[in-house]
Structures are given as structure tokens and as C-alpha cells.
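Team,

Forwarding the record for the chain on the shared tracking sheet. I've put the sequence and predicted structure together so nobody has to dig through attachments.
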Amino acid sequence: MGSERGAASAPYAGAGFDVPEADAFSRAYWDAAARGYLLVRRCRADGCGVAHHYPREFCPRCWSEDVVWEQASGRAVLYTWSVVHRNDLPPFGERVPYVAAVVDLAEGPRMMTEVIDCAEGDLRIGMALRVRFRRQGGRGGQWGQGDGREREAPGFTVPVFRPA
């Protein structure tokens, strides 16, 4: 039975399912995260002004292409969550249990993320959260405070949230 499991998971060995693919458009987002800033996109079309996340090259409300990057405050509230106790895809299996969550950013959009530094029993819908940044794929697991003073390090950086 153990060999069957090993054979089934072999195609995933070494795969980076949690590694973002930065392209010419999204590079600004990932570079800002590496510096400890969370960015959203905001529409500048007359009568719209909607902020959105995940970043797109157009406004999902009015379809205008007049959208710009904007630094988010880093404040959010918990909309919903699920505690993941089993995940066979690397590297997630090493992280269980973890809290997969959807948060409402202060700027308006909802964002998929992870909640850290909070016991499962303390999670509450509407609880105030603050962005943190987790450096992955490099040496050590350095954390950014969201104030832009983090050192550059190999790997990539993802926004996660913790209780405010």
C-alpha cells in the first residue's frame, strides 16, 4: 500500500504548486509583496473607481482598461475560512493544519489567502486582520511587517493575514 501511495504522488515530487508565475503584468504585484506592500488594482473610469483583486488588466465592473496599481492599507476582515488538515500536494502537506481563508480588504475586494498566528477556536467572521508577508523558496522563512522595510531575499513573497 505504501508503494502505491508513493507511485501516485511521484508526478508531484518537487513541483512548486505554491510558486507564483510572475509575468510582465503581475511582476509589479510580486515585487511590491517582496518589499512588504500589498497592491490592488483600481479603475479610474468616470463613475466607477472600483478596486479589485486578483489583479487584472481591465476593470471587472465596467471593463475599462484605465486601471492602476494602488497600495492597499493591509487591513481586512475575515469573510470565511476552512482549516485544512490534509493536503497531498507538496509543499502543502508539510504545512497542515493551515487556515485557507477569504478576507474582505478595507479597499473593498475579497482576497483568497491564509490566516496565520491564530488558533482555530479564535477565528470569527468579521474579525480584524492585518497583512503580513511570508517569504518562501529562499533561505529561512523571513516575515515582513507590511511597512516596506524588509530585506530582499531569494525566493518569492506572498501576502498572508494575522489578527490585528
